[in-house]
Amino acid sequence: MSGLLAAGAEPAERLVSRLGLRFAVSYALIAGVLFSIYGFPFELFGAKTDWLTHYLEAYARLAGGVLQLFDPQVTVSGSRIDGRFALQIVRNCDAIEINILFASAVLAFPAPLLRRGAVLLRGLLILVGVNVLRIAGLYCIGAYSARWFVIAHEEIMPLILVTITALLFLLSVRTLAGRPVSPPPLRVAG
Fold it and tell me: For the chain, what are the domain ranges?
């Protein structure tokens, strides 16, 4: 058993341990519910999944807009990006998994709801931007170095997304905890 949970543990240590356990359980439950909703096969039960189609098309339009700044040949049709390289934005290209992981961590954090909502909105906007840049980067890799596309798409980019998501949450903890996010004071030697 952990030293923090030992009978002789200080009250502050027990509180931290209880809060950590509460966070972990809340995180797992929220993530489980969100992943279940995202992964549920609604179409098998006759439900329309137009929201997902429109969501993927929006990602294609966003990434296509960024790419058109550098490559005017790029066109977007539905969830397909065409130009020097063709990309189809499909489920799992939307990086919903990292959004769910981030959202679950923020929602499970013991902070006022309004603060969690603000951090969640800002974080999800950042993650959407990062994913748009990832899609644009994959297009460029495919267009200019196609042999690296598969490893970039399946190995490197997912690792980068998860790392950015974890760092984003860690940076958000100060705001969630109610401590101002400001740089440390400048100390002048002399």
Answer: 11-176
Alpha helices per DSSP H over the chain: 11-39, 50-68, 96-108, 113-144, 149-151, 157-176
pTM of the shown model: 0.81
What residues have CB less than 8 Å from 130, skipping those under 6 apart? Answer: 95, 161, 164
Q: What is the dihedral of CA 125, 129, 130, 136, to 10 degrees?
A: 160
Q: Rounded to the nearest 5°, which phi and psi values hold at 110?
A: -75, 85
Tell me the pLDDT tens digit for each residue of 101-157. Answer: 999 999 999 999 999 999 999 999 999 999 999 999 999 999 999 999 999 999 999
- Give residue 78's region: left, alpha or beta (phi > 0; psi -120 to 50): left
Instruction: Kindly tell me if the per-residue pLDDT of 16 is higher than 80.
Output: no
- pLDDT at residue 4 in the model: 47
What are residue 11's phi and psi, to 5 degrees?
-55, -40
Mean pLDDT estimate for the chain:
87
The first and second tokens of residue 47, run together, are 């439900």
Are 95 and 131 in contact, with CB atoms under 8 Å apart?
Answer: yes
CB 164 within 8 A of CB 131: no
Residue with tokens 């966003």: 62
Cβ atoms of residues 103 and 34 within 8 Å? yes
Is 4:13 a contact under the CB 8 Å cutoff? yes
| pLDDT reading at 6 higher than 70 | no
